[in-house]
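Quick one - first record:
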Amino acid sequence: MTVDAEISVPSATIQVARFDIEHPGESFVCRDIYWLDLAVTPRPADARACFRDHWAPHRFEPLGRMFMAPPDEVMRVRGGGGSQVSILCLLQKDMFQRWLGQDLEWTERRLEATLSVPSEEVQQLLLKLGHEARHPGFASHAYSEAMAVQIAIELNRYYLALDKDLNAGGLAGWRLKMIEERLREVRSPPTLTELAELCGLSIRQLTRGFRASRECSIGDYIARTRIDNAKRLLGQGESVKSIAFSMGFGSPSGFCYAFRRATGSTPRQFRTQLTATSSTRPH
């Protein structure tokens, strides 16, 4: 692991880290802190993890774009080789104890859910922290400390809400992860029938459970994820035409219409804005 940028505050250490994995294999990770990891480039193929002290040794579950390794837990990670960049937020253990009065109990449901944390609020905070680590500005440490505290609060809410979701009929963590994995694929969006079969549910159970878990309709979530994938591909330099057809749009014009309706700008305008923002950042 190579740390390209770092900022430390009382509650956490934030790092922009690059992982160069020469040989696919397995590693053991043990932390006495909450290790929060947001991938800003794609993870190696088939990246999966196992909690050695809780699961059978052959059970490896997929890692999402953002995962968190609990403190004092041994996590075995395996997947294909390659390079990958992440924003890490290493939260102090007492950040969780401060509000709960105790450590979180790592139930089966919480362990499953920690491998793919879906919170958009936390993702946006991590992206801001990554930028702050690279380009610290006015009152950078105070600003970063405030965001780290907010992340800890959001994570507490996320894990405590899992029990509520279970009682309210929300989807199990493994089903949500399977849906997230399918939505990250760059191809035509899935139908409700496909997702229901993937999860082993009826369409009605799927739509009701998803709304209970994510507080939005699964159709809106699919549409939003599709646009997020398009943004990522535009940032990687893919052509508008190739993105349109690879993501299942009938034509480039159809893709441009959907993108503009969702974002307020055309794909080319969005790419120009990305380029302009990158070129004006201090080095």
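second record:
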Amino acid sequence: MSATPLLELRGIDKSFGPVQVLRDVAFAAHPGEVTALVGDNGAGKSTLVKCISGIYPADSGEFLFDGRPVTINSPRDASALGIEVVYQDLALCDNLDIVQNMFLGREKRSGIVLDEPTMEQMAAETLAGLSVRTVKSLRQHVSSLSGGQRQTVAIAKAVLWNSRLVILDEPTAALGVAQTAQVLELVRRLADNGLAVVLISHNMNDVFAVSDRIAALYLGQMVAQVKTTDITHSQVVELITAGRSGNLGLVAEPALSTTGSGAESADTNPGAVR
């Protein structure tokens, strides 16, 4: 594992009107590691990912890629750096085959016609490089694939373009036990191939099975980012639901005295952790 994160965020803020969704967020993803991004609904996971992928501009903060400051103003900027996102809906076309889906919008051409042999070869090499053996034919329509196979195609599509950071949004949602195991093996293989992988998941079993680090968001704040081996399942749940677990997470503020002028009770302080 490289000591320098591939992607590092410092002090990221994002608001929509009067609502501050992200507050001073720090985050790092290392090459060769799976970093699980966890948090309750509304914690800010989707907003953070959309800032990383260039869909939303951050209001403030720094982005560093390979230790160098970068600016990400659009999805094109993110793609140029090698950042790819596989969203939960997968963005695949059922009426197209696997090769057509993997090259959709980025087709190879030979003159004015599509270079089908080259695209098929590149698709085959990408799937082989990920040790994918569950797909019978590259010319299968996506409509004929299982949920696990669809997820595999979406991930292969993301890594086809010399990606260096892959973000996976709930890749095992709605999958059976066997398909989930296949997808998690693929996620692990991405990291073993040297990519930085960010896994967004609500499934703690999946998180502990495949991740090297866990980053917990709570109400728009990054309350902890620790090695998976240094934290327990119950601690992660506490971080997600309360923002604190033992010495991890938000610092509890002492109750203020109710005597004297200008006194304020802890109940009037929304930042206090109980």
